[in-house]
């Protein structure tokens, strides 16, 4: 595996691959890698000739400076894990490399996507996502980019961004990887105590309950039942919504294929997100 730290090195390594018409798979990460990231890498290895993984904690998508400071950083362990899993390249740029003095921010009209759920509770977050992901796409020039479904709304933002900026890349969404308890794998889980890890399982439990209730009740009643179920937990709910899979508009009386429940909650001072498709495309 080759470690790359700047754009010149990146071009030196990837230009010959592009010239041969080979496929480059890209997995953008903020480090603190886990099996969820490895599932993205494995998918990329199957579909592409070479795989590039970036590790960069992007300051512009944190609207809370304390959250940025506390975000887990495990670079040495991450590099070892990538070597073990036969990644081809790891890109480890500095903040100045990603945001040079002459950098001009990208502007994308995200419509309703940026005003609901994560967008409503983390102002400016998706501006940061648009800028860092578009910058990476232009630097790496991947054939395909791989994202986890756990970041459901972020994926919707990236797909809309690619469309508006006319970036030539295929977005591949990979199912959420969960541990044995059902908790979605996340770098933030490293900040949870053993007790909090047990308490956090309620997030996936309420999503599974919603999936079962959706077979009998309307979206609005299913949501009410999910919220009541969650009230008995030790976590503090930030939002829980059932949305259309593309527009992210709230669903009320009628189900649509791909209807998805999205949740954000605090376990102690750690903010966790998750989602689950409640009505599959096969059911409608």
Provide a descriptive summary of the structure in words.
This protein is α/β, with parallel strands linked by helices and 284 residues long. It folds into two domains: 2-174, 3-Layer(aba) Sandwich (Rossmann fold); 187-275, 2-Layer Sandwich (Pantoate--beta-alanine Ligase, Chain: A,domain 2). It has eleven helices and nine strands. The protein has helices at 7-19, 35-47, 65-70, 75-84, 95-98, 118-121, 125-140, 152-165, 194-199, 202-213, 219-231; strands spanning 2-4, 24-29, 50-55, 89-91, 144-148, 170-174, 236-243, 260-267, 270-277. A six-stranded parallel beta sheet has the order 1-4-3-2-5-6, with helices on both faces. Strand 2, helix 2 and strand 3 form a beta-alpha-beta unit.
Element layout with pairings:
Blueprint: E1 2-4, H1 7-19, E2 24-29, H2 35-47, E3 50-55, H3 65-70, H4 75-84, E4 89-91, H5 95-98, H6 118-121, H7 125-140, E5 144-148, H8 152-165, E6 170-174, H9 194-199, H10 202-213, H11 219-231, E7 236-243, E8 260-267, E9 270-277
Parallel strand pairs: 1-4, 2-3, 2-5, 3-4, 5-6
Antiparallel strand pairs: 7-8, 8-9
Helix pairs in contact: 7-8, 10-11
Attribute tags:
three-stranded antiparallel sheet; 2 domains; six-stranded parallel sheet; alpha/beta; Pantoate--beta-alanine Ligase, Chain: A,domain 2; 39% helix; Rossmann fold; 284 residues; globular
What is the highest CATH level, the class of the largest domain?
Alpha Beta
Considering DSSP H and I runs of 4 or more, what fraction of the residues is helical?
A: 25-40%
CATH superfamily of the largest domain: HUPs
Number of strands: 9
Regions with pLDDT < 50 over 5+ consecutive residues?
none
For the largest sheet, list the strands in their spatial order. Answer: 1-4-3-2-5-6
Largest sheet: 6 strands, parallel
**Class by alpha and beta content:** alpha/beta
Q: Quote the beta fraction.
A: 15-25%
What number of structural domains do the residues give?
2
| Overall 3D shape | globular
Judging by the overall fold, what is the CATH architecture of the largest domain? 3-Layer(aba) Sandwich
Rg? 19 Å
């Amino acid at each position: 595996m080759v470690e790359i730290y700047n754009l010149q090195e990146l071009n030196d390594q990837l230009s010959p691959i592009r010239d041969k018409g080979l496929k480059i798979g890209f997995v953008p990460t903020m480090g603190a890698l886990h099996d969820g990231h490895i599932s993205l890498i494995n998918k990329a290895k199957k579909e592409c000739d070479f795989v590039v993984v970036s590790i960069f904690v992007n300051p512009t998508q944190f609207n809370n400076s304390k959250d940025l400071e506390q975000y887990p950083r495990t670079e040495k362990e991450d590099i070892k894990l990538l070597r073990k899993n036969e990644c081809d390249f790891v890109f480890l740029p500095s903040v100045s490399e990603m945001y040079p003095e002459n950098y001009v921010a990208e502007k994308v009209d995200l419509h309703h996507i940026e005003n609901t759920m994560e967008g409503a509770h983390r102002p400016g977050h998706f501006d940061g996502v648009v800028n860092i992901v578009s910058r990476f796409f232009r630097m790496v020039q991947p054939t395909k980019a791989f994202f986890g479904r756990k970041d459901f709304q972020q994926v919707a933002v990236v797909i809309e961004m690619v469309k508006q900026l006319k970036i030539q890349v295929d977005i591949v969404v990979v199912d959420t990887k969960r541990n044995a308890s059902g908790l979605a794998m996340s770098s933030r889980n490293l900040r949870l105590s053993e007790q909090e890890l047990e308490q956090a399982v309620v997030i996936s439990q309420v999503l599974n309950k919603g999936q079962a209730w959706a077979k009998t009740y309307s979206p609005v009643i299913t949501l009410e039942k999910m919220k009541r179920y969650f009230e008995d937990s030790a976590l503090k709910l930030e939002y829980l919504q059932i949305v259309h899979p593309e527009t992210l508009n709230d669903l009320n009386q009628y189900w649509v294929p791909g209807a998805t429940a999205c949740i954000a909650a605090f376990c102690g001072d750690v903010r966790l997100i998750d989602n689950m498709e409640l009505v599959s495309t096969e059911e409608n």
